[in-house]
Structure formats: C-alpha cells, structure tokens
Amino acid sequence: MKTFNYHSAKNVKEASKLASSNSVFLAGGMSTIPSMKLGFANYRDIIDIKGIKSLSGIKVSGKTVKIGATTKHVEVANSKDVKKAIPSLAALAEGIGDPQVRNRGTIGGSIANNDPSADYPSACIALNAVIHTNNRKIDADKFFKSMFETPLKSGEIIEVIEFAIPEKSNYQKYPNPASRYAIVGVYVAKHKSSVNVAVTGAKSCVYNDKDLAKALTSKFSSSSIDNFSISSSGMNSDIHASAEYRANMIKVFAKKAVDAC
Amino acid sequence: MKKVSLEVNGKKVTKEISNHTILSVFLRDILNLTGTHVGCDTSQCGACVVHVNGKSIKSCTAFAADLEGSKITTIEGLAQNGKMHPMQEAFKKLHGLQCGYCTPGMVMSAVDLLQNNKKPSDSEIRKWLEGNICRCTGYQNIVAAVKEAASKM
C-alpha cells in the first residue's frame, strides 16, 4: 500500500475542507482499507471522521429513525430503540459481516461505498430513507446511482440517514459463506400507501422491484406474487450463484419476507 | 510519519510510524508481538483478531495511526502472572486446535463473545465465530472449548 497523509478531523467543516479529488473519508474502513491493500484504490489524503461526535448516534422520533453516519453496525443491531421501531433494520445490522466487522463498520460508510451486495442500501430503498449530507438531503431512490457510484460530491459528507418507520417490514438474505455479503438480499417494507421490495446482490446496483412492489401494494400477501417469473437478464452471475439462481431467489425471499412480516 | 501512543497489554507504547502502518504489522513487526497471526489479510479469516478498547476487531483492517490513545489487548496479554486465561486453558484441555494458526484469533474472538453473552449456546458460539476460519476444520472442539471456558468464567 502506498502511504498517504492522515488527518483526524474534529468536525464536519474541517473534514469537508480537507477533501480533494485525491482523498477519502475514513470511518470504519471495512471496505476502504482492504481496497487500498489490494491496490484497487490509492489516496493522497485519508480524512478520518470517526472522531466527529455529531456524526454518531440513533434518534427515534414519531415517524422516523435517524442514524448518524458513523454509527457502527453493532450499535444499530443492539439498539433497543431500533429494535422497537424497525426490528428488521436491527436484524439486518446483526447480519452484516461478522462481530469484528460490526464492531467497526459504519452505516454511512456502507452507503457511501454503494457496494452492489451490501445490506444497508436495500434498507435505504425499502424504508424510503433520506440521506442528509452537509449540503443537502438526497432521497434513497436518487442516491444509489450505479455500482460503487453515488451523487456525493468531493467534500460532501453523509451526516444522518433518516428511515421512515414502516407498518411492517422484513429482510431476507442468502449470505456469502465467507464474507456474509448478500449473494441475494430482499427487503420488503409495507408503508401506509405503498410497498417497497428492495433487492441487493442481484444486479450491479440495489433497486426497487417495481412489479413485485405493485403486486404487493394491491394485496400484501405472498400469494400475490406466486405467479411472477423474474427475468435473469442483467443479473450478476459468478461462482457463488448463476443469474437464473439469483432471479429465482428474489421471488423466494420476497415471499419469505412477506410471510415473516 | 506519525507518532502514536497506545496501551498494548497494559504497557504504554509510543512509536513513530508510517501513516499506512496496519495494526497487525505494528503489533508483529514493530512490537514483536507475533502471537497475532495474519492469514488472509483481507478481514475474512479472523486469525488477526485483537481487542481495541475491549472489543474484538480484525487488526489487519485498521490503521495503527487512527487508534491513538486506544487500549489494545493481544493474545499475549491474556495470561496473568504466568497463568493462562480460562479460554486458553479450555482450548488446551479440549484440544481446540490442530495446526494452531487460527487459534489466537479464535481465542480473542471467543473472549469477546463471553463479554457479550456469558452462557452462549452451541449455535450462538458458531454464529459468533463466523468471522474466524479454521482450515483444519476443527470447529467441534473449538465450540466445546468455548463452552468449557464459559462454565469456568
């Protein structure tokens, strides 16, 4: 790994000011550090934002759950407030990686990285999340643009992720046996007037399956999607699972998630 | 270069290191604490697990520079006054190791498990140890050892 300048930012303003086209914000580092070690990424400046207190914490108020960007997976998994408001979100956090990854990895880091098989992006889509940065608010359906791509600009920092508390929700995934990434993950959430079916791991970027969502919006029952056949076109295919397998798993998991709601 | 001050196994340590020094390299190559093993080096195998401020992490995926002021415990820091930690005793007694390469990470991870869950079931132990891979596949005795340690602690 090439060396870099290390900065520990005290506040968001300072962190943002230090940013350049050749820098990266470091929170848990669970993706950033391995990608640097493997030579996929090099940066001149690493801007550590872990120490910025205002970026961490969980607040439940009325209709939303707000989670600070540097809140660790273990904190979301163990939070009594999250378990009560959106149990599926705490369960998702509990299934990320392994205990050591959960002790260090952060929700903001996961979302900013937008890995096609990460768990949290599906929660953002399913739970109509709003991503608050130091400059603006971005709706989840505009945030996950394509593989590892988001609309975040240089110097823009995710501060809070605001999730809408659904009536019912459930997340199902088939984890990679080694890394626990979602080979396929499906997050179903029933809101007052609509249902979202967020799919991760299957394509190059998380997405809301509009057809499944529509069928479940008219009738929230797993039998509503019994007759669906999901096309494998555009699905990932690798040593872990073929495109056809992934397509089938989406339906299986969507049904399972609805039944578990 | 950056000066970092940490506490490692109860001793204060201050070293001048490169910014990109990984914690596992800091422990092994700079402090000569070679009990922490490096297997995959990409945070999947868990051979490098140590505790930072009481919580287990993978030392191959942390920069030493960002752990300023932290308290680190490695496998070398578990034994007290020449007496093995109950987890080490249990691994020894129940043959919870074969080649031993994954063992330091297994033990450190298992100690953290018992901090969170004093009486884990077999399935809770297996779930917790998902991030620790034993290529000898000696999981049966590892699980038995963790249970034994839980009954002694």
Q: How does this model look, in words?
A:
The complex is a heterodimer of chains A (about 260) and B (about 150). Chain A is an alpha+beta fold and about 260 residues long. Chain A has a domain of about 90 residues: Enolase-like, domain 1 (2-Layer Sandwich). Helix content of chain A is about 30%, strand content about 25%. Chain A contains eleven helices and twelve strands. In chain A, strands 4-5-8-6-7 form a five-stranded antiparallel sheet. In chain A, strands 9-10-11-12 form a four-stranded antiparallel sheet, sandwiched between helices. Chain A is globular and about 55 Å long. The model of chain A has no long low-confidence stretch (mean pLDDT about 95). By secondary structure, chain B is α+β, with helices and mostly antiparallel strands. Chain B folds into two domains: about 80 residues, Ubiquitin-like (UB roll); about 70 residues, DNA polymerase, domain 1, CATH 1.10.150.120. Chain B is built from five helices and five strands. Chain B has a five-stranded mixed sheet with strand order 2-1-5-3-4, with helices on one face. In chain B, helix 2 packs across helix 5. The radius of gyration of chain B is 15 Å and the shape is globular. The termini of chain B are far apart.
Short description:
The complex is a heterodimer of chains A (261) and B (153). Chain A is α+β, with helices and mostly antiparallel strands and 261 residues long. Helix content of chain A is 31%, strand content 23%.
